[in-house]
Amino acid sequence: MSQPAGRSVTRTRLPETAAVGVGKGPRWRTSPLYYVGVAAIVLYCLAPFYWMVVSALRRPSDQFSNSLVPAPPSLDNLKAAFSPGNGFGRALLNSVIVAGTTTLLTLILGVSVAYALARLNFRGKGLILSIIIAMSMFPGIAVVVPLLQLFTEIEWINTYQAMIVPSMSFALPLAIWLLTAFFRQMPFELEEAAQIDGCTPAQAFRKVIMPLAAPGVFTTAILVFIAAWNEFIIAVSVVNKNEMKTANVIVSQFTGQYRFDQPFGTQMAAGVVVTIPLVIAVLLFQRRIVEGLTAGGVK
């Protein structure tokens, strides 16, 4: 009789224990302070962008207004940004070329180097990783003068490669570090199983590892593209022809109607145009970015 009684006690306790946390998150998420804190962070992050949009939609005569809503809204600043004299359209194309090429070349080199550092055992591997990270710690302004002298001697001034190569030197450490950590989390048994099935090491990497590494590579590509798109100090130093300048440089050099006044509204409109592609990319691929940052673990 004691055994059935024990069973009945167990049966009555299990539902109570299971019902404690089923369908319920942490208690702090139910607190009003949690939602107030989230709203404050979102407001803090979006307030500058909102003010830039509002300033872009004001009329030129109202550019120093402090109203939170443009009244009436106007597209004059946007039209002025794309006026033929500014060269903003050509600058956007230059930014796409520089950022896209930098991202592509960085991924090709970064994937190869990261896979070698993650899978091969050789002396000095830790030192190499430390040097790669140390390279990313140098500020861009510290290398402008040597690069300017070097590019002048090899006649790279006012060329795309003068902007792409320095951008890669800052983007490669980020890409290698992220991809090395990602490849390290992937089990070695994947390559071994592929080679047992008849694949060469190169085929195992191409047909097995790369498809599984797609989330990490995609995340790295987004981060590298954003860094290359926002690069300013190198582009403004090695290019002085308007037809070769990137969008960030052109926006900073906008002049007003009389060549002496500061066109804040036009600069804000151009800043919105430059920022919107990045915002859209992050919103569309935010799930892939999160998956890339958290993928690679073995469950």
Structural summary, described in words:
The protein is an all-alpha fold and 299 residues long. The protein has 2 domains: 2-74, no CATH class; 79-294, MetI-like (MetI-like fold, Orthogonal Bundle). Helix content is 69%, strand content 0%. The longest helix has 32 residues, at 88-119. Residues 1-23 have low confidence and may be disordered.
Question: What are the SSEs and their pairings?
Answer:
Layout (H helix, E strand, L loop, with lengths): L1 H20 L10 H25 L19 H6 L6 H32 L5 H11 L8 H10 L7 H24 L4 H8 L4 H29 L3 H6 L8 H6 L11 H21 L1 H9 L5
Helix pairs in contact: 2-12, 4-7, 4-9, 5-7, 7-9, 8-9, 9-13
Short structural description:
This protein has 299 residues and is mainly α.
* Helical/strand content category: mainly alpha
| Number of H- or I-type helical stretches | 13
CATH architecture of the largest domain: Orthogonal Bundle
- The residue-averaged pLDDT reads 82
The H/E string reads HHHHHHHHHHHHH
CATH topology annotation of the largest domain: MetI-like fold
What portion of residues belong to β-strands? under 5%
Task: Give the number of DSSP strands.
Answer: 0
CATH superfamily of the largest domain: MetI-like
Oligomer: single chain
Question: What's the structural domain tally?
Answer: 2
Task: Characterize the main sheet.
Answer: none
- CATH class value of the largest domain: Mainly Alpha
Helical proportion, percent range: 55-70%
Distance between the termini: 43 Å
Mind telling me the C-alpha Rg?
27 Å
Shape: globular
Uncertain stretches of 5 or more adjacent residues: 1-23
